[in-house]
Design a protein that fits this description.
By secondary structure, the protein is of the alpha+beta class. The chain is built from 8 helices and 8 strands. It has an 8-stranded mixed β-sheet with strand order 1-7-6-5-2-3-4-8, sandwiched between helices. The protein is globular and about 45 Å long. It starts with a helix and ends in a 5-residue tail after the last strand.
Length: about 210
C-alpha cells in the first residue's frame, strides 16, 4: 500500500514539474497535492501511553529532568544532540556507562568540533569515548538539530533543550519526558539509527 502511495506521489510530482514548465497557467495546486501525499507517508502516528513529565529553563527543572532520565537507565541510552557541552550531562552518561548501560551518542560535527567550537564538546566526547561509550559526529545535514534521549527503549526525552550550560541557566527551553512508551521509543530509535548510519566515528585526541 505504501509503495503504491509513493508511486502515486511521484507521478503527481513529475506531472507538476512537466505541467509547470509549459505555457499553461500554474497555481501551485498540483504541488500542494503532491506535498500532502508525501507528508502523509512521512509522518508516524503513535498511540499515547505512559506518563508525561515536563520542565523548563532557565533554572526551572529542565536540567534536573534530563539527568533524571539518564540516571533511570538500566540497559541503554541513545543520545541525539546539537550542542553538547554540559559537564553534568556528560557526568551522568559516564555514570550510566560505568554501571553497564550501553551509551550511544550522535552529535552535530560542525557545531561541536569545527573552528570556533567550544573545547568542552571535544573534551566531553573524548571522556565518553575513552570510557567505552559509542560516540559519532554527523555532518550530513545543514545542522543536526535533534535533542533526544531514548532510554532503555522505553522512555523518550524531547524538547528544545540542548545539552549545554546555557540551556540550563540562561536560555528559555523546554523538556518533555514520555515515560513508558515503547512504541514512541521505537519510532525515535528508527530515526536515531538512520542518522547513526550517516555519522562518523569520533576519535579522541588523547
Amino acid at each position: 500500500m505504501k509503495k503504491a502511495i509513493r508511486t502515486a506521489a511521484g507521478a503527481i510530482a513529475t506531472f507538476a514539474i512537466v505541467y509547470s514548465s509549459t505555457a499553461f497557467p500554474f497555481d501551485g495546486a498540483v504541488w500542494r497535492a503532491a506535498g500532502q501525499v508525501l507528508q502523509s507517508i512521512s509522518t508516524r502516528e503513535v498511540p499515547s501511553a505512559g506518563t508525561l513529565e515536563v520542565a523548563f529553563s532557565p533554572k526551572q527543572g529542565a536540567e534536573t529532568l534530563v539527568l533524571k532520565a539518564i540516571d533511570s537507565a538500566r540497559s541503554s541510552i541513545k543520545v541525539m544532540a546539537y550542542s553538547f557541552t554540559s559537564s553534568k550531562v556528560t557526568a551522568a552518561l559516564l555514570r550510566a556507562q560505568k554501571r553497564g548501560v550501553t551509551v550511544s551518542l550522535v552529535a552535530d560535527e560542525q557545531h561541536n568540533l569545527k573552528n570556533g567550537a567550544s573545547p568542552k564538546a571535544r573534551a566531553a566526547f573524548s571522556a565518553l569515548s575513552l570510557a567505552g561509550a559509542q560516540v559519532r559526529v554527523i555532518s550530513a545535514f545543514a545542522i543536526h538539530h535533534d535533542k533526544v534521549l531514548i532510554v532503555d527503549d522505553l522512555h523518550v526525552q524531547l524538547g528544545s533543550y540542548n545539552y549545554s550550560e546555557s540551556a540550563a541557566t540562561r536560555n528559555s527551553e523546554n523538556v518533555l519526558v514520555n515515560w513508558n512508551n515503547p512504541a514512541l521509543a521505537a519510532v525515535y530509535a528508527d530515526h536515531f539509527a538512520k542518522n547513526w548510519a550517516l555519522a562518523q566515528q569520533f576519535n579522541p585526541d588523547y
